[in-house]
Amino acid sequence: MDYKDLANLIFPDAKDISYYEEKYVKRNLPEGAVVTRYAPSPTGFLHIGSLFQVLISSMMAKKTGGINYLRIEDTDQKREIEGAITSVINSLKDFGIEFDEGQIDEINGKGDYGPYKQSQRKEIYEAYAKYLLSQGKAYPCFATPEELNELREKQEAAKLRTGYYGVWAKYRNLSVEEAVEKIKNGESYVIRLKSPGNEEKKIRHKDVIKGNVEFPENDQDIVIIKGDGLPTYHFAHAVDDHLMQTTLVVRGEEWLSSIPTHLQLFNILGFKAPKYAHIPTIMKMDGESKRKLSKRKDPEAAVDYYTEEGIPKESVLEYLLNIANSNFEIWRKQNPDKKLSEFDFQINKIGVSGALFDMVKMLDVSKNVISRMSAEEVYDKVNEWAKQFDEELSVMLQNKEYALKVFGIERGNTKPRKDISKWSEVKESISYMFNDKFDKNAQFEYAKISDKNEIEKIVKLYIEKYFDINDDKQTWFDKIKDLAEELGYAREVKLFKSEPEKWPGHVGDISTVIRVTLTGRQNTPDLYEIIHVLGKDTVIERLS
RNA sequence: GGCCCGUUGGUCAAGCGGUUAAGACAUCGCCCUUUCACGGCGGAGACAUGGGUUCGAUUCCCGUACGGGUCACCA
Description:
Layout: H1 3-10, H2 17-23, E1 35-38, H3 48-64, E2 67-70, H4 84-94, E3 101-103, E4 109-110, H5 122-134, E5 138-141, H6 145-157, H7 176-184, E6 190-193, E7 202-207, E8 211-216, E9 223-225, H8 233-243, E10 248-252, H9 259-269, E11 275-279, E12 282-286, E13 289-292, H10 303-309, H11 313-324, H12 328-334, E14 355-356, H13 359-371, H14 375-389, H15 391-396, H16 400-408, H17 426-430, H18 452-466, H19 473-486, H20 493-498, H21 507-519, H22 527-534, H23 536-543
Parallel strand pairs: 1-2, 2-3, 10-11, 12-14
Antiparallel strand pairs: 3-4, 5-6, 6-9, 7-8, 12-13
Helix pairs in contact: 1-5, 1-7, 8-9, 11-13, 14-16, 18-19, 18-21
The chain binds one RNA strand of 75 nucleotides through helix 6, strand 8, helix 8, strand 13 and helix 12.
């Protein structure tokens, strides 16, 4: 009996690997095109770090005329979550990320290199495992969890490196006969790689982002096929990325230390290894120390958070791009109207150390993104958001024509207003523009001039003598100045500042009184525009 | 603990042996013919640390400290 017999016993039906090698033909892509992928395990939760990763992959594929595909890594049945695939696909779609190829729903994929769901690729992994088995490069291991535990304890007690390797790999040198017998006895087992690595030797590898890294060779006999018959991540990674012809693997830096294992696997299988780009983890400040954004503690770790808060997807993407390529900011300043895809993204310019997530900066980016939108765009997006997350706002926006006017205030000119950074702020910032949300009898907080009688006097005189909806802006403001003067206030701020003792206040204080009476707040956009959007009747009604 | 990776202002970051060490956010002050949001100008604020190498180190090498990652039949 030899290895082939063992291989046949374990995987009697597995095909020869040549079948798959021939089935998946070479991709026909332009020179330099990158094939990359996003390969989540379906936990139903899209982390901001994952979005970062997909963004990078997709930028690289687009830039080079390549392919970005979606592969589902569902080899851990214990973690399976119903509907998770659809939810990930939809979350990504919310951010404008769609794949050229790969999984499209819970069961189906599109493209010539599928299936794109690992649980549907079992026979493929078996073929490759059988291939290794038949050459004696992999073997069945009968160690029980208890045995493995014991082994580790022993190693720890002796202060040795833990793991299943070298002389500790108890079943590595079991004879074929013994193995066959155990299998026939129904003993459970996994398939392990018979690692040819030597811990004393180093391997050198050039990561696209991290640059040169050096590791000891892998000498662990890692599991490639688990007890449940499904492959481990490592094995599936090698087989899938080879067959799907991935040329660039973008993944989190927590994978960096598996490089020796992965390179070894590619090598033993006779595959050409892809390039790897290990991207830094997005961190958060927690007290004194940094830590990974956590799905349990930090709502902003989940991509859906941004959707719910109404932070536009463009903002999130721009912020992320900012972290990735710091020259993006400059580019954006020079090209305010260009699409993100026109930015010449450089993957090797991504910083090597983990970036802290900075919500303040994110909102600043967002504020600028929103300021570049037209009133129509703002309307559409706010409306869409409100439909889902804020019914009251949604109702307010029903009169589209009016809402457009509201959003058009100080927008579309060379110095657009920058006061909205997320849709969830919109209601509060525009509520006074709606009569049914405005209570003229509420107690407003006035500024310098707060005497009730004085306020009444100012407003009354304004409405009776100076208010004319048909005035142009200059005339309108001149009249406020006249009003100020008539009431004994300085008509220019500068005048007041040069001789502050001469007047009780200035034109700004007067306009503040009108502003507060009209809107209920001290800070608003341009009063003249507000008056015109509100219309004559409302203005008179509120000021009377 | 072993093995990796990292460390430039409060934050994100340029920089690749000789720079007054960019820029952005935040912060502070002033200005911008009404507030706020903008915009403009200016201020404060950094190369973790100790040794080398070098005429010269933020940049290269080694150690230390600190931070992160990883050591599963999870990905």
